């Protein structure tokens, strides 16, 4: 019983690892063929970080401005994904 379980766990881990590698390869390929989406992804990460810092420092005006920029970029990203036939994310 224990050897069967170990075999199944090892098999699962190998399959998961293979899927993770394929996902990373596909993601890299996707962003290479759609660099504007990668740029938006990087901008969103920076804006989100800056927005968190603004909130923590109590600068609500800046936080609201950054939130507006995040919303705008998210809409732009969703539109680009729609144009290349990728379904929008669910909110």
Topology record:
Layout: H1 2-33, H2 35-57, H3 60-83
Helix pairs in contact: 1-2, 2-3
Our Rg estimate from Cα atoms comes to: 20 Å
Number of DSSP E strands: 0
Helix/strand/pairing category: mainly alpha
Low-confidence stretches: none
Q: Could you give a short account of the major beta sheet?
A: none
Shape descriptor: elongated
Q: In angstroms, what separates the terminal alpha carbons?
A: 44 Å
Helix content: over 70%
Number of helices: 3
Strand content: under 5%
What is the average of the pLDDT values?
A: 92
What is the string of helix and strand elements? HHH
Characteristics:
about 90 residues; mainly alpha; 3 helices
Explain the overall architecture.
The chain has 91 residues and is mainly α. It has helices at 2-33, 35-57, 60-83.
Quick recap:
By secondary structure, the chain is mainly alpha-helical.
């Amino acid at each position: 019983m224990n050897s069967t379980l170990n075999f199944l766990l090892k098999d699962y881990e190998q399959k998961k690892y293979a899927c993770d590698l394929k996902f990373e390869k596909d993601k890299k390929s996707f962003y290479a063929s759609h660099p504007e989406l990668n740029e938006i992804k990087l901008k969103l990460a920076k804006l989100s970080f800056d927005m968190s810092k603004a909130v923590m420092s109590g600068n609500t005006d800046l936080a609201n401005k950054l939130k507006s920029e995040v919303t705008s970029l998210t809409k732009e990203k969703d539109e680009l994904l729609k144009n290349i036939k990728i379904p929008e994310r669910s909110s």
